[in-house]
Amino acid sequence: MFASATIEKIIETWIADQKHPERYRKQKPIPDEADVRFLVETAFWASLKKEENRPISFSIALLTKEEVEQEFELSGRRQLIMTFERSLPLSVDSLTKIAPAFNPQYTALIIEPENNARTNYRIWGAMYFSSLSNPLKEIPVWIEDQTFVRPDVFMVTAISPGSLMISRGNSQIGRFVSGEFIKAVPTPFSSWAMGNYIKNIYSEASSPEFFKPNFWHTFSAALDYLLSEVSFRSHGASLIIIPDFCSRDYRNLYSRRYTFPESLQINNMIQALIHLPTDTDNSILRLGYNKKISERLGALSQLACVDGALVITEKFEVLSFGSTLRAPRWKGQVIVGPYGFSGGGENFERRMLGTRHHSVMNFIGECAESIGFVISQDGPIRGFIKKDSETLLCWPDCRVSMFI
Questions:
Q1: Which 3-state string (H, E, C) describes the chain?
Q2: pLDDT tens readout for residues 270-290
Q3: Mean pLDDT score, 102-125
Q4: Is residue 235 predicted with pLDDT exceeding 90?
Q5: Where in the chain is the domain with CATH 3.40.1700.10?
Q6: What's the CATH superfamily of 194-395?
Q7: pLDDT of residue 160
Q8: Partner of 376 at 20 to 30 A CA spacing, among 85, 141, 269, 298?
């Protein structure tokens, strides 16, 4: 079904990831083209099916029983694997039936070829591992012999109908979105990408919290979590972040349709969290703060479900939601912003984008200190920052990060 060039691109991306000096990869065998094609195409068709009228989500991992034993001999650690007494054929039908029993956040169905010809594959077990999530949802405890990492094997995860994630270990290789394979890139929130431009907006005098120890790590995790929740909850949304120190200067650029004066107190809890001593006695308290911050960010993201833009400050204070953005048209250029492993600089094609994108770009062009995001439910999350009087920077997908 998929063109040979698409399958080759996946394998080439895998090879590039393994060879990259900053990835520190074990030198694993390159996945066989037949394996990649069969797993990806089967997962794609299965992702379009429904079980009891609900879309299914699942992970499948390419791993033989012999490879499990070899890994144990090398590392001395076993994965938590449950072996089916009778293996199942890997097919759209079998995946559709069995997928609801396994949560892809911490389980993958294990696949191996049935024969050397690689014409048929079987599901021989299920592997459990620790769920990876945003730092705000992490449990700060490592339990020896009971904490299992995601396996460094070829894995395909069905995120939503027609949307697949290709991964190895804790990292993405890329995603299928609308039938197109998009190579994963370093998270744009790192300090050598969008993060650097965000930090440059603030000064120590206007926003001293940005210069406190550990603040950026927690702030970027909170922003990433907010964007993910907006994507999950809404059918598409716009998010504008205006620095608190200049928020009153730009009220004429958006309608304040719904507002309230009270605070969700997210920033207060972030400040309390980053000042907690790191000793083990505070593990439960840290977990409690993480839980409450994620709950409040969830509540904040729900406001984006109303038609119109959600406008907030960097302290996650609500300025308005359901807002109409009304800045003059941006006439400058829009180029791709830098990622960790590339300099960016390519022209960002925007002619075919809709009103939501153009209204955010117009706003960022007029309000130089602001940050804008356009969120799609199953598509990309695009970020915009103004570089100079003639240039906007765009990060085409803040969700296709190398980190799961």
A1: CCCHHHHHHHHHHHHHHHHCCCCCCCCCCCCCHHHHHHHHHHHHHHHCCEECCEECCEEEEECCHHHHHHHHHHHCCCCEEEEEEEEEECCHHHHHHHHHHCCCCCEEEEEEECCCCCCCEEEEEEEECCCCCCHHHCCCCCCCCCCCCCCCCCEEEEEECCEEEEEECCEEEEEEECCEEEECECCCCCCCCHHHHHHHHCCCCCCHHHHCCCHHHHHHHHHHHHHHHHHHHCCCEEEEECCHHHHHHHHHHECCCECCCCCCCHHHHHHHHHCCCCCHHHHHHHHHHHHHHHHHHHHHHHHHHCCCEEEECCCCCEEEEEECECCCCCCCEEEECCECCECCCCECCCCCCCHHHHHHHHHHHHCCCCEEEEECCCCCEEEEEEEECCEEEEECCCCCECEC
A2: 999 988 887 667 778 888 899
A3: 91
A4: no
A5: 194-395
A6: DNA integrity scanning protein, DisA, N-terminal domain (3.40.1700.10)
A7: 85
A8: 269
pTM of the model: 0.75
Q: Taking the domain 4-183, which CATH number applies? A: 3.40.1700
